[in-house]
Amino acid sequence: MTTTLTYRHLFGPGPSNCYPEAISALGNPVLGHLDPLFLEIMDSACQGLRQVWGTTNSRTLPLSGTGSAGMEAAFVNAVGPGDVAVVAVNGMFGARMCEVARRTGAQVVRVEHPWGTPIDPERVAAAHPSPKVIAAVHAETSTGVLSDIAALGQLKGDALLIADAVTSIGGLELYADKWGIDVGYAGTQKCLGVPPGLSPFTISDAAFELRIKDPQSWYLDLGLLGGYVGSASGSRRTYHHTAPVTMIASLEAGVNRVLQEGLGTVQARHVAAGLALQDGLEEMGLDLFAAAGSRLPSLTTVKVPDGVDSAAVRAYLLERFNIEIGAGVGEFASSVWRIGMMGPNANPASVTLVLGALKEALAKAGR
Amino acid sequence: MTTTLTYRHLFGPGPSNCYPEAISALGNPVLGHLDPLFLEIMDSACQGLRQVWGTTNSRTLPLSGTGSAGMEAAFVNAVGPGDVAVVAVNGMFGARMCEVARRTGAQVVRVEHPWGTPIDPERVAAAHPSPKVIAAVHAETSTGVLSDIAALGQLKGDALLIADAVTSIGGLELYADKWGIDVGYAGTQKCLGVPPGLSPFTISDAAFELRIKDPQSWYLDLGLLGGYVGSASGSRRTYHHTAPVTMIASLEAGVNRVLQEGLGTVQARHVAAGLALQDGLEEMGLDLFAAAGSRLPSLTTVKVPDGVDSAAVRAYLLERFNIEIGAGVGEFASSVWRIGMMGPNANPASVTLVLGALKEALAKAGR
User: Fold this and answer.
1) Which part of the chain is the Aminotransferase class V domain (chains A, B) (predicted)?
2) Is the ipTM of this complex over 0.90?
């Protein structure tokens, strides 16, 4: 491509703009995937991921695919033909979990909730007497809703708890161990402020013991992956597949940037930006989509005013301001916008910019 | 990490050092995966990949995982329970194909060849009267052997031909259409000179029609992926998973760098570097491992002289020269070295450097 480069303000559901440390690391010299210098970076990335996951799990690692690969890894390693998987569905990613689980041959018990509302932990936990796994999305990217994973963890009984933390990791409170998450997967391109392409993943020792021993996926077989990434730092690594070294260096830099700023500080920055955005949208007379009390700070959903062409407003924002916001999903594709304030974008300047730009776009649209 | 950065000469089996254009593109502004500016980059990447694959297949795209994910995508989309898959095995990657195919429930017919020799197309084609697929590795990374995929294509009959081009794409002659490759997967981190993390993939229309309609992998389901990557440029894209935008920008830049230099010129550069290296090693009195007439220019295998500690030599090269070469694989782990001259490293300077360094290392080892 010989065109000029364009900076976009990525205020959609992700990818977000990235931390400068994460971008800078992409340009570091490429290292071999078995080079001792690279294994130090991998160890540092895994150690940093443990902190943002809130876990001491030895098996905490970046999988070599996007968040959806993490979802697939969670299910193919946890359930097989005939196993019961209870899945809480309150948006697209819960629905996707059902589809991924179905393809393992598991018996899927789908617990539906209205989009825009959080999951009901009691109803989910009561959906089947003895499931092998119970799965739920912590932060539903499709609806902007935060659900109470800790409550589900208390009610899970003997089941393994699978949690999707794609839009919470690195920006919102997340305590895998304290909440009882047995298997967790996430993404890099949201609050962690790292380009997309890896899935931060964690699995407890107990869940690892109960895993499917010959899963249908070779690429995502955690039993094989462990030989390379290793549970014990410094032990001999065996080759599984060529690790995406450049992306892992970027993740290592991004996650350590977050830890250096301070996880609490970063979370407070996300909360402040999300609340300021939500207040500002309501002051403009717009209605928020996600239920009050369950709104994600990292990703805000807002209803498109009656008579306004959703796509035209998004195109105006992109063309005039280089601002990307997201459309809605499914039946809300044209009636909801999704505005993310994630990673380095979780700050007052982003809030002020997107509110001012949206005000102008709506005025143009005759509102 | 706050350590200083180290430049390594990556003369192993991959990752290789990368083209500067591919590294530079990693630092470009991050774009949304549905941004029209990104879709232009994706289209350009796919178009470039068609050229290095030697195909006009509309479904030619970078999968969001490494070459091993490409292998898994090839099998889960092509075979299911009970289907017969004939797999030619002359090294680790052929063996891996068998394992990946087995996990789909396919009946695997494994056709063994001695490591270090090319596949025998007639024996492979005769191994079963009516397989659904026949699979082989074009350039065996574990042994440094080139096999005749064109001959296998002529003998495949009604079977679909799956080919692994991980260590040939972008550096060696490869003509997917002319040779009759129905499904091909590759990697970015070898001759293409792009960091690892994506798998250039191609599937013919005919193979796409015969694909497994509900494959066990959701992440690698080509039927779903097509909606996003699109067979027809400019058509409406539907979201499947968040594309690894940064890596795709790097691939686009790398593959177009290769095309700008000229595919024939780049191939000649790989051939010249490989021959010069192999001549130089023999002049040093070393024995090559791969059978004469079937040696990969991109990756040379050489026997470790009797009495020489393979690992000690590799450590010496790394510590004194920042040169990485590869160990052997499997039973040849300590008795073979693998030396890659790939991508930007396929040049006289790399050959001279590695020969000189190896001579010194062997002298130190008392040879």
Assistant:
1) 33-328
2) yes
